[in-house]
Amino acid sequence: MQKLAKKFIEVMKECSHIAKAGTNSFHGYKYATSADVMDRVNSSLAKHGIASAARPELLSLQDVTTVKGNTEHLATVKMTIELTDVDSGESCSITGLGSGQDAGDKAVMKAQTAAIKYAYMLSLAVSTGDDPEADIHTDQAGEELSVVPLKPKPIRKRVSQNNATVCVDCGTPISDKVFDFSVKRFGAALCMDCQKNHQAV
Q: One Pfam family, short name please (predicted)?
C-alpha cells in the first residue's frame, strides 16, 4: 500500500490542525465541529484521489433517565471508513466510535456524526490545539453536576502500542487519573470531552 500511504501522508499534512470554531454555550467550551472536520478531510481526500465509503454499525441503543426524570435514547455507533486510492486501487479502513443522546429520534445520527469525526481525527492525527485532560473547569463542574451513570459497566480498554487506557466513546488515550474520575462519576472510561457530552443537566 505504498502509493496510498504516500497520499495519506499528504492528507495528514493538510489536515494536521483544525481550529475549534464551535462553541457549547451551556458548558462554555469550544470544539472542532464535525462540519469543519469533514470539510477539511473530504477536500484533501478528493484532491489526492482517495475515495471514501462509510459503513456504520449500531453497537447499542438504550434508554437512560436524566436527573429530571426524563427518558432519553443513548446510541453507540462504530463507523468503519474504507479509503481507496483511485489510481492504484489500494485500500485500507479506519474506524471510530461515537455516542449520541437525544430525547427524540436523533441519538443514532448524533452517534454516527461523532464516530466519523473521531475516525478521521484519530487516524489523521488531527490536532485542535488543546489537551482535554488539562481542563480543570470540567473537573470543577463535575463536582457540582448530577450525572446519569452510563451502561454498560466500566470498561478499561488498552491501546496495543503503549498499553494506555482509552476513552470508550472516541478512543482518545486518557490518564489513570481521568479514568478513575470518569468511572466514579459516569460509570465508564471517558475522556474529558466525552464527559462533557454525557453530563446530565
A: ERF
What secondary structure does DSSP assign to 134-177, as a single string? Answer: G-HHHHHHHHHS--PPPSS----EE-TTT--EE-TTT--B--HH
Please state the pTM of the whole predicted model: 0.61
Phi/psi at 160 (nearest 5 deg)?
Answer: -65, -30
Q: How far apart are the C-alpha atoms of 27 and 120, rounded to whole Å?
A: 25
Number of helical H runs and strand E runs in the chain = 6, 7
Helix (H) or strand (E) holding 181: helix 176-186
Residues of the chain with CATH 3.30.390: 1-130
Fold classification of 1-130 is Enolase-like; domain 1 (3.30.390)
Tens-place pLDDT, residues 118-167: 999 999 988 876 554 444 454 454 444 444 444 444 444 433 334 567 77
